[in-house]
Amino acid sequence: MTIASKEKPLSCQRHLFSLPEDNAFLNGAYMSPQLKSVYAAGTHALLQKNDPTVVRPEHFFSTLERVKMQFARLIDTAESERVALIPSVSYGVATVANNLNLRAGQNVVIAAAQFPSNYYSWAEKCAASGAELRVVERPPDNSSTSWSEALYAAIDENTALLALSALHWADGSLWDLPRLRTRTRDVGAWLLIDGTQSVGALPFSVNEVEPDALIVAGYKWMLGPYSTGYAYYGPAMDNGKPIEENWINRAGSEDFKNLVNYRADYRPGAARYSVGQQSNFLLMPMLEAALQQLNAWGVTRIQRYCEGLWEGILPGLEELGIQLAENRAHHLVGLRLPEHLNAERLPEELTRRNLTVSFRGDAIRVAPNVYNRPGEMQLLLEALRAIA
């Protein structure tokens, strides 16, 4: 995938991160390093707890609303009221499962080897309802059928949901989301997207894809702290049932004096689906700082920067016979090694060069971001050549 943009290209942003200078960290898909601005926001928030009198009732809501607006901007929607704050992808997926009317004779379609948080809820839901969990394997390399086409073919009039990611978390293979969305809409099925390994580094537009749910963890490409996440819930989830009942999600919850007068109605939009204690006075300011930086850079520029990092080593990878997904993103790329490369020696060569990557399935997952430099990619190529 080639990214075109008229915006001024990004230069390396390593100076904005608390990352050791000698560490070639090509593992952003595992966990992001810390932005200095996020660290500062967290430190300031931690110190505020020393004096609880500075936390007023309006503070339970104000930072939340700003965070929702910043996330809505990132995913290209004006409907920030459709954003919920969640602690994990599994929480957001479970919320969708709680509202999906699934019965025997129907099916849920997923891609093989997708991340477990977008698998277990559907396995349990299908087992309980008697529905079929339809797992679509990757077609063999010599097949004329793409993985997206195989997913498309698996969807039929009995499909209730397609649960997918924006790209495969192990090798960065991209799906044809608009075409799959059209297919799900034609048969009346929901589309849930786990955007954890894409949103924040790869352009995504709610207006274009129109998912019924988009779930994103906050600690990877979103550059926030652990135990945070975001969910966008479309019209299909309006008036649904949350998986927990907490006071702040009810209408009128900003009026602390009248909290004793219980309300049956919820706050507008997707607020009912936010986790309890969502006002977290330590984590929310950190999320806000991270979102501000992402929106200032622009996701298109982030993806272009990552694309540029690969340009210098792609010829060398080709010479070594290393396979990359043909249709892929640039911030998360899975390398599949040919037999003449001794994969067992690779961890040693990576360690020798202070290189950090992940091993996922049969792929070496390389995940650079704006804090990485071209020289670190050359170190990766050196390590691969060393095992030839």
Q: What is the CATH-assigned architecture of the largest domain?
A: 3-Layer(aba) Sandwich
Encode the helix/strand succession as letters.
EEEHHEHEHEHEHEHEEHHHEHEEEH
Strands ordered across the widest β-sheet: 4-10-9-8-7-5-6
Number of structural units classed as domains: 2
The percentage helix is 25-40%
So what's the CATH class of the largest domain? Alpha Beta
Give the tally of β-strands: 14
CATH topology of the largest domain: Aspartate Aminotransferase, domain 2
> How far from one another are the termini?
28 Å
Low-confidence stretches: none
Rg value: 22 Å
Number of helices: 12
Mind describing the biggest β-sheet? 7 strands, mixed
Describe the structure.
This protein is of the alpha/beta class and 388 residues long. The chain has 2 domains: 14-34 and 298-386, Aspartate Aminotransferase, domain 1; 43-296, 3-Layer(aba) Sandwich (Aspartate Aminotransferase, domain 2). Helices cover 33% and strands 14% of the residues. The chain has 12 helices and 14 strands. The protein has helices spanning 36-48, 59-74, 89-99, 120-129, 147-154, 177-187, 206-209, 283-297, 299-311, 314-319, 346-352, 374-386, and strands at residues 17-18, 24-25, 34-35, 83-86, 107-111, 132-136, 159-165, 190-194, 213-217, 229-233, 333-335, 355-356, 358-360, 363-366. It has a 7-stranded mixed beta sheet, with helices on both faces. A 3-stranded antiparallel beta sheet has the order 11-14-13, with no helix packed on it. The longest helix is centred in the first third of the chain and has 16 residues, at 59-74. The model has no long low-confidence stretch (mean pLDDT 95).
